[in-house]
Write a structure and sequence with these properties.
Structural class: mainly alpha
CATH topology: Ferritin
Helix content: over 70%
Number of strands: 0
Number of helices: 7
Distance between the termini: 41 Å
CATH class: Mainly Alpha
Strand content: under 5%
CATH architecture: Up-down Bundle
Length: 185
């Protein structure tokens, strides 16, 4: 019979694979970005993600388990989608908004996964592992917030290009940022 610890270790292996894949994907995303602040944010998160891999290895050791990965099909799919979006919008005014969208999809998956892992580590009585997982979760939340702020600061407006839709035509003149907020969600 499988129990919570089995589920925890299975999901931990899944996220270990996910983080290693993300480490490989982030430099490509940074290269595709044309907005310098986005490029810097992606590269900063690359350093954090490399740290996440190490922290996950520590979590395995907290449970006296061998470090192992299990193909994270969700991350594979999200990264493939991100590659497609980057290719489809290369050279477009929407490239940075597209990259932010792809990045936020990954961040949301990670936040959900780390939220569960953190809770389960606590239930399993491993406070050290729970603390490490909380650190990762906090960094994922901060990365998502940073991406959202970049979208609102310029990338979503830039994605409009020169052609504005009539329903939004007056918003720039009046300083209305509702359109920016809607596009970031």
């Amino acid at each position: 019979m499988k129990i919570l610890k089995d589920l925890f270790l299975d999901e931990l292996a899944d996220m270990y694979d996910a983080e290693r894949r993300i480490v490989k994907a982030l430099p490509k995303m940074a290269k595709a970005a044309t907005y310098e602040k986005l490029k810097r944010a992606i590269l900063a998160h690359l350093k954090e993600t490399e740290g996440h891999v190490k922290k996950l290895e520590q979590v395995f050791h907290c449970f006296d388990e061998k470090v192992k990965g299990k193909t994270c099909h969700a991350t594979v799919g999200l990264l493939e989608e991100g590659d497609e979006i980057a290719a489809d919008f290369k050279g477009s005014p929407a490239i940075n908004a597209a990259l932010i969208s792809a990045g936020q999809k990954v961040e949301h998956y990670e936040m959900a996964s780390y939220g569960c892992l953190h809770e389960w580590a606590g239930l399993l009585g491993n406070n050290e592992a729970a603390g490490l997982l909380q650190e990762i979760l906090d960094q994922e939340k901060a990365a998502n917030k940073s991406l959202n702020e970049l979208a609102l600061a310029s990338s979503n407006e830039e994605a409009l290009g020169d052609a504005e839709e009539p329903e939004f035509a007056g918003n720039k003149k009046t300083g209305n940022s509702n359109r920016s907020r809607a596009l970031a969600r």
